[in-house]
Amino acid sequence: SSFLSRSHFGSRDQLGCSVSGAVMAEEIGSQVEVKLFGKWAYDDVSVSDLSLVDYIACKPEHAVFLPHSAGRWQKKRFRKSLCPIVERLVCSLMMHGRNTGKKVKAVRIVMHTMEIVHLLTDKNPIQVLVDAVKNGAPREDSTRIGKGGTVRTHHRK
């Protein structure tokens, strides 16, 4: 068999994520507590807005050690809502041409930012992120309404 065999890299689940780490955690049992960057637990994080509960993945079943799952969250409709909220923040930092593909750099930025937030507020930075998303308002934009010939522009405020 070749060096790049399937057993060397582990298998992949339906999202394209590596499941070797999950299998190891199951073999060890309930001894492993998943903490973001090995520091912040997901247990006490809650979403107080009922309309956002389904769209912010911060429950312990969505917990990750690193926000770099290599999952294909865009392939099906609404699957993005299952992506951990910290990973969505990391992916949003990779916008514009000069930053695309630099996910490790974005993870490092988020890690340092969470350290600073923890030192300044003495709170769980995951909870601070969830509250920031909850308090954020949708941006003002304009939408084209209508099909075909006449197009009417509707401005949202």
TrEMBL record:
Pfam families cross-referenced by the UniProt entry: Ribosomal_S7
Residue stretches making up the Small ribosomal subunit protein uS7 domain: 62-151
Highest taxon, organism lineage: Eukaryota
Gene Ontology CC terms: ribonucleoprotein complex; ribosome
Residue numbers spanned by region Disordered: 138-157
Database matches in InterPro entries: Ribosomal_uS7 (IPR000235), Ribosomal_uS7_CS (IPR020606), Ribosomal_uS7_dom (IPR023798), Ribosomal_uS7_dom_sf (IPR036823)
GO process terms (BP): translation
Alphabetized SUPFAM superfamilies for the sequence: Ribosomal protein S7 (SSF47973)
Keyword Ribonucleoprotein belongs to the record: yes
Similarity comment: family membership: Belongs to the universal ribosomal protein uS7 family.
Protein name listed in UniProt: Small ribosomal subunit protein uS7 domain-containing protein
Species for this entry: Oxyrrhis marina
